[in-house]
Structure formats: C-alpha cells, structure tokens
Amino acid sequence: MVTHLFSDAGRTWRQAAKHNSHGRTIYEALLREMNGPIGIAVHFQVQRNAEIIRSLPITLANQVNEHVLREVLKGTRADEIAKQIKTYFPEATKAKANLIARTEVSKTSTALTQARAESVGANWYVWRTSEDSRVRGSHKIMDGVLVKWNAPPSPEKLDGQTRTFGNYNAGEIFNCRCYPEPVIDLSLVSWPAKVYYNGSIHRMTRKQFERIM
Ligand SMILES: [Zn+2]
Prior knowledge:
The chain has eleven helices and five strands. The chain is mainly alpha-helical. It has two domains: 3-119, no CATH class; 124-212, no CATH class. The protein has a three-stranded antiparallel sheet. The chain has a two-stranded antiparallel sheet with strand order 4-5. Helix 4 packs antiparallel against helix 8 and helix 6 (58-74) packs across helix 8 (94-119). The longest helix is centred in the middle third of the chain and has 26 residues, at 94-119. It is globular and about 50 Å long. The site of zinc ion (ZN) has 5 residues, from loops.
C-alpha cells in the first residue's frame, strides 16, 4: 500500500531505523533523494515556513533547519530534536525552543510528504488527525477531508473563530500533530467524501470530485 509510505515520514523512518536491518541503506537512499528535485522542494517549503528564521540570526537559522531536516530523515523523535536544537537558542528564547522545534519537525515532515506526493502527480491529500481528545476543534473539522496541496484551508475560519492563522496544510502549525495522507488512488477513498474546495467543505461523489480535481 503506497499511502502509508507517505503518511508520516517521522514514524515510518523511525520504525525502519529501529526494526529494520536495512535502516542504514534506507537512510542513505533518503539522503540521495534530498540531492534531487524532491530535496529542493523540501528545502524551499522548510525555508518558507520557518519560525526559526524569525527567532534566530539567519545563518544560525539555516543550521537549525538543516539539523531538523537531517534528524527528521533519520526518524528521530520530535522531543529529541527539540532537545538537540535548544543549544542553538540564546538563553532568553530557550523556553520557546521546544514549541518551535516541534512545529518545525512537523512542518518538515509535511514538506517531505508534499514534495514526494507532488513529484508523482498526487495533488490531493486526506487531512488526518491523531484522533484523540487533544485534537483542537478546528482540526477535528478537517479530519478525513480531501485537500489540494496548493489550496489549503483556514481551519479556524471554517470553525467560525475570529482569531485565525491563515491558510495552511496538515501539520503546518504550532502544536499540531495532524499529518497529510496523499491520495494516490481514488478507488481507495470511500465515496462520497468530504472535500475542501472554494473556501468550504463539500460532500462529493467521485464523479463530482473528478470534475474539480
Ligand atoms: Zn492538527
């Protein structure tokens, strides 16, 4: 099944590294991938969203970005990466390091998934939440909704909140544990499905979806 390969880079590669004797080979394949067009797309996304850039001098910010990307590829856990990058932060901002690190790890995973998905023409994904009680209301609304990578929603706006954070994809905002699951094969989606389109969520049949995709 192709979709689970994409679903959560962190989880997948952490497992591969721990339980698979080929962990090293997989990691080396990933590094090679980072030298090609997928790597360029990931770097672009990561740079574009980086909170770190606002919190640190630019050269340091780039080092932290590289560090986060490398560790995400290795499958290191978010808390562990947070601990590692704390050392880069000046004393005054150390308290923020944890939140920033977790956010960047999540955004990097999403960027990697997006780059891989779009490279094979998978322009839509299913927004998945961690489906527990800590999922915020606005993200519960998004659970199971089909989203186009280049037209993300504002979940807060869909939830009728006055304080919004702009439009973003699954996993791209602070304290978010949601992840995108690329749609590779329409027959794997259960129709009718919820689709985010033109600023709201619609229930669509496969035929209706094919007309707008
Ligand atoms: Zn979320």
